[in-house]
Specification:
By secondary structure, the chain is an alpha/beta fold. Helix content is 25%, strand content 20%.
């Protein structure tokens, strides 16, 4: 059964989040609130945890996973970013956007896309998740929490079903989130002179990016 941590949405209790970090460090998968919907997260460098993340979400290795980063400088450590891409990233972070970029050597090949060698990256605008990332001291591997067989993401910890709780190590409850996933934008064409490509329209406003 997942351990439930009820935290304040604006001033989360560090001692509770630290307990959740310990569970992640032990290889657990956690459900966490974000500035879009809830997400599943685990450690980046733990293969078994990443396999569990994919199994719980019901996706294979061709599904783009996302790295949740504390800020833009951390994001740039895990992706190859040119000046044009950086300007767009700067305009959108933090926020409910996921960007597909070429993964740097800091990203284990087993979590990047097997043929494209790309990875999703984003900087969330959510106080609880930012505090968790800070205590963890690095990015977390993530995917939108959409239960197997469903099409809509979960936006309330109370809606995490009993079977799913049995597969998780932790659930961080900070109240309801938005019931909408992130906007996903592929920036890799920009590296060769092309334009950014919209993959999924979500909560993030494209007009704010000039797209």
């Amino acid at each position: 059964m997942a351990q439930l941590f009820e935290v304040h949405p604006v001033n989360p209790q560090a001692r509770l989040l630290q307990q959740a970090v310990v569970l992640l460090e032990r290889g657990g998968v956690a459900a966490v609130p974000t500035d879009s919907s809830y997400a599943l997260v685990c450690q980046l460098d733990n293969k078994a945890a990443a396999d569990s993340l994919r199994r719980i979400r019901g996706v294979d290795d061709k599904h783009h996973l996302t790295l949740l980063c504390r800020d833009l400088s951390e994001l740039a450590n895990y992706a190859r970013v040119d000046n044009k891409q950086y300007r767009l990233l700067k305009a959108a972070t933090p926020g409910p956007y996921t960007f597909i970029l070429e993964a740097s050597k800091e990203v284990p090949r087993r979590v990047s896309h097997p043929s494209r060698k790309t990875i999703g990256l984003r900087v969330p605008d959510h106080k609880v998740l930012q505090a968790l990332l800070e205590l963890h001291g690095g990015p977390l591997l993530a995917t939108t929490l959409i239960p197997r067989g469903e099409t809509e993401p979960i936006n309330d910890a109370n809606d995490i079903s009993e079977p799913l709780q049995n597969e998780l190590a932790a659930v961080i409850d900070a109240g309801t989130c938005y019931l909408m996933p992130t906007t996903v934008i592929d920036l890799t064409p920009m590296a060769s002179g092309g334009e950014a490509v919209l993959i999924r329209q979500g909560r993030g406003d494209l007009a704010a990016l000039g797209l």
